[in-house]
Design a protein that fits this description.
InterPro entries: GH, GH5_C, Glyco_hydro_5, Glyco_hydro_b, Glycosphingolipid_Hydrolases
Keywords: Glycosidase, Hydrolase
Organism: Phenylobacterium terrae
Protein name: Cellulase family glycosylhydrolase
Strand content: 15-25%
Shape: globular
Number of helices: 16
CATH superfamily of the largest domain: Glycosidases
CATH class of the largest domain: Alpha Beta
Family: Belongs to the glycosyl hydrolase 5 (cellulase A) family.
């Protein structure tokens, strides 16, 4: 049954009955980044057939819809961040939309509504495209820009698993060839620098860079928005589709960076702290793209010393490979930014100023883009919400949205425990209060972005790797061990994350559910050795429902409130959930509490301090309706 439409009122989501709603959802799914059926990064590819691929079958074949959606509903989720990509829609060429895929995507959305899910559409990307180590943009965008992606690896213009991995080796992890969680380095490398700078700031920095009479920025953004509109048209008649994400974790390219000065430490002029690994400048990227060899300092840590320092030097593009398709194709050289003959930087502020005025990335580029996204989808259906997100570093460090954001925007920024995500380790013997406190501080900074907009906050992504601690849980599972003990570290990590979000009143969509996931350190979610799926086919053995660490995410919460939710808390050590609601008797529908089987059996005790309230239970839902305004205290206990 469709849950109907959803609106916002201040910082809250409001359903058709006027109740405040908590969206507790999941990203569906991780393998939507790659074609179906054999597009995973664990399969060798040279991307030669990029125009003929198909994404029909992502997130799962249509005949499996009820299996997967029923499972997710049974775990208590009520919202899906449903992934698609620009490539999935427009892989064949500019303006050539995949009608079969659009029909398939609309069917998945429709069935999600029948299972009671609200859906918002995420046009996903990571480091631009599959050809640059991620996903998102179609391969023809490189042809339009005059770039040859078949040369990227030889020129060190992108770090791509399919080029670096030795698929014949029995070693699942090859840290010397393709270090785990290394795909993000591509944001600093030449191919991403060129593409993101063109996408967001082509008119500002390269006004003469035109393709078929259009500036490169207008060409790229116009095509992206056109693909988004095609999806919007396909799902416009489904009321439970509540909006669109702007663009997943957008890159900045070279916007705001000095041309040749190296950022080895954070400075007031460049406050972003450097990351471990090679340190690129825009000039390095331009030179390598043009076929010049460069030497880059590499930052790292020595022993236990805090901070980063130069630990080595890396030579890039030693073969002198040019990724531009012709000798005069480099638009940045034509714009007088640098000179290839001697590698000279001609305008140090080329990406920081236009006509003597310092550019502001957010005001000059992000705000107009956000408005264009909202205008595009709302030209199809006016009530859609905009789930907006910034570069994750900006969101995490308290950098808020720019002025001029569209109305009915949702703060959909992402948050991860970076230490757990990058190292894929978690100590079950941690100090939980200390960790919970850190999570509260970090998530509070993100919530402030929504409060500044007077908008709801939904954490669009968070989650944990399930191959924690060297895949220990998978080893124990393969040896025949079952039960909750093998997921103890995962459950504790997730529980602390949800504890913090409950305390702050945040909605969320966990990353992720991947239908094709395997307990294999090479495969995982089918993309760059990531493995954050709460489900795996390998967990279906022995009567299991395929879930991993289910008690970590299938938790009690107030799904809908007859008024305003003022507090909710789950004491998972005691099996006690409590909540407070400021009741508005004018709201005719009852409050609803999700009561998961993973924590509460049929005999769980319902707590309510209003003796005149109507209390009922249907399956995994407790309904409570009050007749007068009051602060209602209610909950569920194992007794």
């Amino acid at each position: 049954m469709s849950p109907g439409r959803l609106a916002t009122r201040g910082t809250a989501f409001i359903d058709d009955a006027g109740r405040e709603v908590i969206l507790r959802g999941v990203n569906l799914g991780g393998d939507c980044k790659v074609p179906y059926p054999d597009g995973g990064t664990h399969i060798p590819s040279d991307f030669a057939g990029h125009r003929e691929v198909s994404f029909v079958g992502r997130p799962f074949p249509i005949e499996e819809v009820d299996e997967h959606l029923g499972r997710l509903r049974g775990w208590g989720f009520n919202c899906l961040r449903l992934l698609t990509t620009w490539e999935a829609v427009e892989h064949a060429g500019p303006g050539r939309y995949d009608a079969d895929y659009l029909d398939y995507f609309a069917q998945v959305c429709r069935r999600a509504g029948e299972h009671g899910f609200w859906v918002f559409v995420d046009f996903h990307q990571d480091v631009w495209s599959r050809m640059t180590g991620g996903d998102g943009a179609p391969g023809w965008t490189f042809e339009a820009l005059g770039l040859d992606f078949t040369r990227f690896d030889a020129a060190d213009a992108a770090l791509v698993m399919q080029h670096r991995y030795d698929y014949a080796s029995p070693m699942a992890r090859q840290e010397d060839r393709y270090p785990m969680m290394s795909w993000g380095r591509n944001y600093q490398m030449p191919a991403n620098g060129i593409c993101w700078t063109a996408f967001f700031a082509g008119r500002a920095f390269t006004p003469e860079w035109t393709i078929d009479g259009r500036n490169v920025q207008d060409l790229l953004q116009g095509a992206y928005l056109g693909a988004m509109r095609a999806v919007a048209e396909a799902v416009k008649d489904q009321p439970h589709v509540i909006g669109f994400d702007s663009l997943n974790e957008p890159g900045r390219g070279w916007i705001g960076q000095p041309l040749s000065a190296r950022a080895l430490t954070a400075t007031p002029d460049n406050p972003r702290p450097p990351r471990p690994g090679p340190v690129w400048t825009p000039l390095d990227g331009l030179a390598a793209a043009a076929g010049l060899t460069r030497a880059l300092p590499v930052l790292g840590r020595r022993g236990e010393a805090p901070g980063l320092e130069i630990v080595s030097e890396l030579t890039v593009n030693a073969a002198g490979v040019r990724i531009w398709t012709s000798e005069d194709a480099d638009p940045f050289e034509r714009a007088g930014i640098w000179r290839r003959d001697d590698g000279a930087a001609l305008r140090e502020d080329a990406f920081r100023a236009v006509d003597g005025r310092r550019v502001d990335h957010d005001a000059d580029f992000m705000a107009p883009f956000m408005r264009a996204v909202a205008q595009t989808v709302r030209s199809v259906r006016e009530d859609w919400l905009l789930f907006a997100e910034l570069d994750p570093f900006d969101a995490a460090t308290g950098h808020g949205f720019p002025a001029g954001m569209p109305e009915r925007t949702v703060n959909a920024n992402h948050w991860y425990d970076a230490r757990t995500l990058v190292t894929k380790t978690f100590d079950a013997d941690f100090d939980p209060e200390r960790l919970r406190g850190r999570y509260l501080r970090e998530l509070s900074r993100i919530r402030e972005h929504g409060e500044a907009l007077d908008a709801p906050t939904l954490i669009g992504e968070f989650g944990i790797p399930y191959d924690l601690n060297g895949g220990e849980a998978y080893r124990r599972w393969a040896e025949g061990e079952r039960g909750e003990a093998i997921w103890a570290a995962h459950e504790r990590a997730l529980s602390l994350m949800y504890d913090a979000m409950d305390e702050l009143g945040l909605s969320s969509t966990q990353w992720n559910y991947t239908a094709s996931n395997r307990n294999d350190l090479r495969i995982g979610d089918g993309w760059n050795q990531e493995d954050l799926s709460i489900f795996s086919r390998d967990q279906l053995a022995g009567g299991s429902d395929g879930g991993r660490a289910v008690r970590g995410f299938s938790r009690p919460y107030v799904r809908a409130a007859q008024g305003r939710i003022t507090a909710q808390r789950f004491d998972w050590s005691a099996g006690l959930f409590t909540a407070e609601i400021e009741v508005d008797p004018a709201v005719g529908a009852a409050s609803e509490l999700y009561v998961p089987q993973a924590w509460f059996g049929a005999g769980a005790e319902v707590l309510c301090d209003d003796p005149n309230a109507e209390v009922g239970r249907s399956g995994d839902l407790v309904q409570v309706r009050s007749r007068r305004p009051r602060r209602l205290r209610l909950g569920v206990s194992n007794g």
